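stage 2 :: seqdesign
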């Protein structure tokens, strides 16, 4: 007999699952010399090239080049990525534990419009129980960069990402 009622749960990533620190990110970009960063990274909306990057309208390489142009001095990819990733804090253990508990009764999906730099950092640092170094964001054609919606398997890896990884290894 089919179960009735709620079967699936959709969990947002940024600001819901993973904690964010906008102020730390602003400070790190200021240290690099990025002018008016607080205007572009508003509390509720991102502006200019930050918004374009979040929407998938520019690549990570283009994002970094825009930042270099605005700073007006040489900065490495790692310096830019570190400043940008300082927006991300961590996923508290109690949230990961809750997800595991919820998975016993529901299919749990992770939904995110996150960008490539943040996703790569998250795969390496935010999910403590499993190595996510093999995961990549779907391409623009796969989800039109508006969301990443994938059910989490027993080890937390999305089925879509695992399928792509398995196919890449063949």
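stage 2 :: out
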């Amino acid at each position: 007999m089919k179960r009735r009622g709620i079967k699936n749960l959709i969990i947002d990533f940024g600001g819901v699952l993973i904690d964010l620190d906008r102020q730390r990110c602003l400070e790190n970009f200021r240290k690099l010399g990025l002018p008016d960063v607080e205007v572009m990274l508003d509390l509720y909306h991102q502006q200019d090239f930050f918004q374009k990057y979040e929407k998938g309208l520019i690549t990570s390489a283009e994002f970094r080049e825009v930042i270099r142009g605005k700073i007006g001095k040489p900065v490495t990819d790692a310096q830019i990525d570190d400043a940008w990733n300082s927006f991300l804090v961590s996923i508290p253990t109690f949230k990961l534990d809750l997800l595991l508990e919820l998975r016993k009764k529901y299919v749990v999906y992770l939904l995110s419009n996150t960008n490539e730099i943040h996703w790569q950092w998250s795969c390496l640092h935010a999910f403590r129980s499993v190595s996510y170094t093999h995961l990549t964001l779907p391409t623009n054609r796969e989800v039109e960069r508006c969301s990443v919606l994938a059910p989490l398997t027993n080890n937390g890896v999305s089925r879509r990402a695992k399928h792509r990884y398995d196919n890449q290894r063949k």
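stage 3 :: structure notes
- The radius of gyration is 17 Å.
- The CA atoms of residues 54 and 115 lie 6 Å apart.
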